[in-house]
Amino acid sequence: MRKVEIALSILEYGPVIKSHVPLIKELASAGLGWVHIDSMREPFISGKSVFPDCYFGHLLDMLGSVANLDFHLMDASPEEPFSVLERITKQEDRHRIQVTVHREAYRDWVSRPYDNKEYDLSSVSTGNPLLDAELRAADKACSRQVLSLLRDIKMSGFRAGLALEPRTSFADLPDDLGSFADAILLMGVSSGSDGQRYMPEVTEKIRAVRSIHKCIRIQVDGCVNEKTIPEIVAAGADNLVIGSYITGAREPLERLRQVRQYLDTLDASG
């Protein structure tokens, strides 16, 4: 059984992050392996244009020496923020940075409302055969763009991650996905929305992906807590993106230690 890693999800950026660095350093010394950074931009995440380019450099300066960084690009055109990261990141630091892009990217030219990330265009059924064929062709074109960007990310020295919304199928992913991506991020909830519950069907998705892609790292993001961690890990996930379950605890350091101890127990028994 592979060692299960913990990634701390943070949602506060810009100058305010400086006040959180001491805690993040403490957490890193207590078993935190990654810091997961959500870069949300419209139209991919409605009403969330809160991540200007300057934040990438600021976060690299503040956290680059503390832990591995995972930039989760919730962006319809992820090549734009990636070009920023490529420009400002030293070659020798790139192996500690993952750039994660969404399978649902590049839909800006798809017919509305099917440009929304919530639609699985690979199996969409509108009742109009011509529109269905158009949408599936568009989905294949988007998939080719995403895989091409993943290849560019890896060739540039970064780690590459592919994110899938809960309703997006993994059936069309290439058998050699590992040559494109180091990790696949399965969203446990729809990205960018608060107050959701973990979608239990994602657990089966984790299990199915693991049965096909034995070596790739599987991340899960969304409602990862004491109720969902056992089933998520049992299904095959080995990177847990955890936010408020740790940061919202009265004693975040102790909460992280509890999670780490539990995961180490699983590692030892596996």
Index terms:
270 residues; alpha/beta; TIM Barrel; 8-stranded parallel barrel; 8 helices; 36% helix; globular
Give an overview in words:
With 270 residues, the chain is an alpha/beta fold. The chain is built from 8 helices and 8 strands, in the order E-H-E-H-E-H-E-H-E-E-H-E-H-E-H-H. It has a single domain, classed as Aldolase class I (TIM Barrel, Alpha-Beta Barrel). Helices cover 36% and strands 17% of the residues. The termini are close together. The model has no long low-confidence stretch (mean pLDDT 90).
Order of strands, main sheet, comes to 1-2-3-4-5-6-7-8
CATH class equals Alpha Beta
Contiguous helical run count: 8
Report the CATH topology name: TIM Barrel
Structural class of the helices, strands and pairings? Answer: alpha/beta
Largest sheet: 8 strands, parallel, barrel
Q: Can you give me a brief rundown of this structure?
A:
The chain has 270 residues and is an alpha/beta fold.
Show the helix and strand layout.
Layout: E1 5-10, H1 21-29, E2 34-40, H2 54-63, E3 68-74, H3 79-88, E4 97-102, H4 129-155, E5 159-164, E6 183-187, H5 201-212, E7 217-221, H6 229-235, E8 239-242, H7 244-247, H8 252-269
Helix pairs in contact: 5-6
